[in-house]
Design brief:
seven-stranded mixed β-sheet; 6 helices; 10 strands; three-stranded parallel β-sheet; 2 domains; D-Maltodextrin-Binding Protein, domain 2; 28% strand; alpha/beta
Amino acid sequence: MKIYVTGALLCCVLFFSVFLHDSVNAQNKPTRLTFSYVDHPVIINDIIPIVQRAYLELGIPIKLVMHPSLRNLKAVESEEVDGDIAYSDLLLKGHDTLIKIEPALVTTVFVLLCIPSVECNEEVLFDNNVIVSTDTTYKGLVSFYPEPLSDAFYTINKLSIIPELLVQERFEYGIYVLGEVCLSEFIGMRLV
């Protein structure tokens, strides 16, 4: 089961277009910007360094705050932070006040992770199998599939620990978000 979504760079929600166009040209730059991010290898190792370099070149220091996915959206909408480092199109549905900055830097995929001893196919999503995912990922899947998903989803706040939970066999199934650069982390697990 692969669901392709586009990881959209959401750094500078509102601030990017306003300050880059008007303020940066007028040398009236913000003194500091705060961005939220999700603990995921692609975001931490690939996207954050790009954003840091861009703002360093503009002479604007940035502060990074790690939040669970759903909290990131709320933090941006409530202006607790100035923007979010990366988000997928699918998960942005229903958040019409946020401005997506394009083009996308990363293409991501939702994958069903399964331990080796269990059946592993898309039907698992609709049975009574317990599947661990983040709340935001679950909501994204619900918006993608026309038929109801299993009621047995177990949601957590930290995406990065889902593979470890399966390795420890605390769960048989998990939904994870992959970028091309982190596929090697899942050697020994079956991906559907």
